[in-house]
Amino acid sequence: MTRTNLLLPLVALSLATSLTAAAQAPASSATEQTLFRAPHTNGGYGAPVQRFSSVAGNAVVFSGAEGGWIINHRFVIGAAGFGLATQNVRNAGSALRDSRGRAPVVEIGYGGITLGYVQNPARLVHLSAQALVGGGGITYDVQGIAGMRAEDAPSDAFFVAEPSVQAEVNVTSVLRFALGGGYRFVSGARLDGLRDADLRGASLSLALKLGRF
Q: What is the dihedral sign for C-alpha 124, 126, 132, 138?
């Protein structure tokens, strides 16, 4: 048997011994930290939402809905949209008037994507934070204004960002009640005397969340 033939079994035995030792070696005490652990859990929810706020000095209500994908019970990626439910907000600075001499009624809608985080979701009462980033539009209800069609109503678009914090109550395993507060930041609104400052404002929100948390 040649020297090469003698060395091959020895090399193979040495390699096998090394691999066995490496496999049996204890894992490092340091655990790698990641944003999402694997395997991760998935859930989701939907909710009707009422937001109480102000527009141009008027107390108003925005009605809407939100929903999202819940990762590991804590991280939320979703969307939300709201419309001005209060019907008596009028822009006194507008030159438009209806047959009774009244200024036009303001209509507003906005929405966008939402990113959120839930702290201690298993607790009966816990906190969550959310940020909405998107856009909206403002126009008039021109019904009753002579010579003005709905498609001819003045309108404008704007950017909106609305961070908020909620206190959530676990009513059941699939139902949560949320009470929160936030602030609506608006930029780029220009409509017949209405400006960003008229559309910005703090808000109080109520939501009933139904889903798999």
A: positive
Rounded Cα gap, residues 79 and 90, in angstroms: 29
pLDDT tens for each residue of 26-69: 444 456 666 666 678 999 999 999 999 999 999 999 999 999 99
Amino acid at 66: E
| Cα separation of the two ends of the chain | 70
Which domain covers residue 81, as residue numbers?
41-212
What is the maximum span of the chain, computed from C-alpha positions, in angstroms? 115
Inside any domain, residue 3:
no
Rounded CA gap, 184 and 196, in Å? Answer: 10
The residues, ordered by sequence, that sit 6+ positions from 79 with a Cβ below 8 Å of its Cβ are: 66, 67, 68, 111, 112, 113, 114
132 lies in some domain: yes
Is the residue at 35 inside a domain?
no
- Supply the CATH number for residue 180's domain: 2.40.160.20
Cβ 182 vs Cβ 166: under 8 Å: no
Q: Is 186 helix (H, G, I), strand (E, B) or coil?
A: strand
- Total domains in the chain come to 1
Q: What is the value of pTM for the model shown? A: 0.79
Kindly provide the residue ranges of all beta strands, DSSP E only, lying in 85-174, ordered along the sequence. 105-118, 125-141, 155-172
Backbone angles phi, psi at 140, to 5 degrees: -120, 150
Q: Is residue 199 domain-resident?
A: yes
